[in-house]
Design brief:
The chain contains 5 helices and 4 strands, in the order αααββββαα. Among the domains are: 63 residues, no CATH class; 73 residues, no CATH class. Helices cover 62% and strands 4% of the residues. The chain has 276 residues and is mainly alpha-helical.
Length: 276
């Protein structure tokens, strides 16, 4: 790289020291190592993408050299009903409906289940007992005495179990709703923080670029050497790298926000009422 060569020339003409040469060479080696790490990460990302596309992973896929622009800003006043599109909330809501149905089934099981015997027209039941000293109404007219068969409170216990499962399903739904709201709030807060950082990093990049222009002008008129220009150029490149990384983080955070909302910012259209 250019920096070690400049440091060596300064030493050869007596205005530098071997310390400067060593620091320049160490910095050059560090930058070369960082470049190779970035190249390796880039190739690995290409191979992963090629595998997803069903191609042989040779890291030959050509990618864009710039990031996609950030989508439209987050609209204000998003209704809470948008969270109802989330798959986990849909599943939790269905579990509540199932729990309510099971409570109804458990209560219905406490009632007699009477069936008719088609061959003999005799009423049979596994819940109630028809006393043998009274006439069966399916055979002839007469009074009937119905006495329940006790099952040790099993039916009452079944109702209590189903009711407890109902309460559990409702509590689980509330927990998932709070978790969804927390994810949305966290995504919004993170997105706002990244947006604030974006403005700061843009100003920092602009100032570093202005300083680079002044360093080059100072070198042109002989007030400084090329080393100052190279150091300021590294600062500009570092600012650009940080800004690019931040833009990638903003795009990833926008994806997280859509995942937390269960879709885009558009509200789900109400289903049309069925025609009569």
């Amino acid at each position: 790289m250019l920096a070690p060569a400049i440091a060596q020339q300064r030493t050869s003409i007596g205005i530098g020291a071997e310390h400067d040469v060593a620091v320049a060479q160490a910095t050059s080696a560090q930058l070369q190592d960082a470049r190779r790490q970035l190249q390796l990460a880039h190739d690995q990302s290409l191979r992963s993408l090629e595998i997803l596309l069903g191609r042989y992973p040779k890291a030959e896929l050509r990618a864009r050299t710039d990031l996609t622009p950030l989508p439209e800003p987050v609209p204000a006043g998003m209704p809470l009903e948008m969270l109802e599109r989330r798959p986990d909330l849909i599943a939790a809501e269905r579990r509540i409906a199932t729990a309510f149905q099971r409570v109804g089934e458990a209560k219905a099981a406490m009632l007699p289940r009477i069936t008719l015997n088609a061959s003999a027209s005799v009423i049979d039941s596994d819940i109630v007992e028809l006393q043998s000293d009274y006439d069966n109404p399916a055979i002839g007219a007469g009074a009937i005495f119905v006495a329940p068969l006790y099952a040790g409170g099993a039916f009452d216990a079944q109702v209590e179990i189903r009711t407890a499962q109902q309460r559990e399903a409702v509590a689980e739904y509330g927990r998932r709703v709070l978790n969804a709201i927390g994810e949305v709030e966290g995504a919004l807060a993170t997105g706002q923080a990244l947006a604030d950082r974006h403005g700061l990093l843009q100003r920092m990049l602009a100032e570093n670029e202005r300083a680079l222009v002044m360093a080059r002008e100072s070198y042109r008129v002989g007030r400084s050497d090329q080393r100052a220009v190279q150091q300021q150029l590294l600062a500009v490149l570092s600012s650009r790298t940080t800004l690019t990384s931040l833009r990638g983080a903003e795009l990833a955070q926008r994806v997280n926000l859509h995942l937390a909302l269960g879709g885009s910012f558009a509200r789900r259209a109400d289903p049309a009422s069925p025609e009569r």
